[in-house]
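Recap from last week: sequence in, structure out.
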Amino acid sequence: MHELSIAQALVAIVERHAAGRRVARVEVSVGHMRQVVPGALELAFTLVAREAAVPVQPAVAGACEILGIDPMYVANEGKLLAFVAPDAAAAALAALRAVPGCEDAAEIGEVRTEPPGLVLVETAFGGRRVMDMLVGDPLPRIC
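Predicted structure tokens:
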């Protein structure tokens, strides 16, 4: 279960960066959240993603629309989901965007304490939905 170790590592990074200060909000940056099982991230916080801010290539969006699948559930190797202190978000994005292949790095959401234990998606239409765990098999990955 790599998700738990990922979550623990991210929490440790946030705690180390906070240096004893209270963390009210953690910005989520870079890429898609799929393939990290939401249940493994239920460590008393909620991840809120802004659907419109998630960088999805037009070809991927088109293919997903034709196939009737949500891009948030498509296996996506080589993506990074980083938790960065709000005051460091701009610098982190600038550093990532300077790396070849990372030009589309984006701040896509934030971590909140309420309601605990959910992954929420703020839709392009202004609503909010719970991002449920994927039911069935994901599309095959070519690794």
